[in-house]
Design brief:
Layout (H helix, E strand, L loop, with lengths): L14 H8 L4 E5 L4 E3 L15 E4 L3 E8 L7 H4 L6 E6 L6 E4 L22 E9 L2 E8 L1
Length: 143
């Protein structure tokens, strides 16, 4: 088990996302009525106001849209890893589709495996999947 704070993977709205991560597939919620993607997931399409949604695979390619570097004091599970990067990645399928994560050297590498000061806005990245505790989380590697 990990000391990291992990998201809830039992929420019925997000279960398909977490199942995709376990398979090594990045899925995004899309509303068929408007064709719009949505992250984080929500029960209603903000465009068409319909409830019907689907989970579709996306490329997992994106660019770093924002970078932050946390420094102590932090939660105990993260203190020894600091400093590390926290990024917002803009997915190539839709410029408004953005996910928070970390750029790492490889899927199984620690959060501090990349010099956080070397991560740049606009840098191209690709999703990878890491086992953390009993979950599989998306992370990002340079491409």
């Amino acid at each position: 088990m990990s000391d990291f704070l992990l998201p809830d993977d039992t929420d019925p709205l997000t279960i398909p996302f977490w199942e995709g991560c376990r398979r090594g597939e990045l899925l995004m919620q899309r509303f068929p009525a408007s064709g719009s993607f949505c992250w984080p997931p929500r029960p209603m399409d903000p465009v068409s106001r319909t409830l019907e949604h689907e989970w579709v695979p996306v490329s997992g390619r994106g660019t770093v849209w924002s970078v932050a570097i946390p420094h102590p004091p932090l939660l105990p599970a993260y203190t020894d890893l600091a400093p590390y990067n926290v990024v917002v990645v803009e997915l190539e399928e839709d410029p408004t589709l953005r996910m928070v994560g970390n750029v790492v050297a490889a899927a199984d590498a620690p959060l501090n495996s990349v010099d956080p000061h070397s991560v740049a806005i606009g840098e191209p990245v690709q999703v990878v999947f890491a086992e953390v505790g009993d979950m599989v989380l998306p992370r990002w590697v340079r491409r």
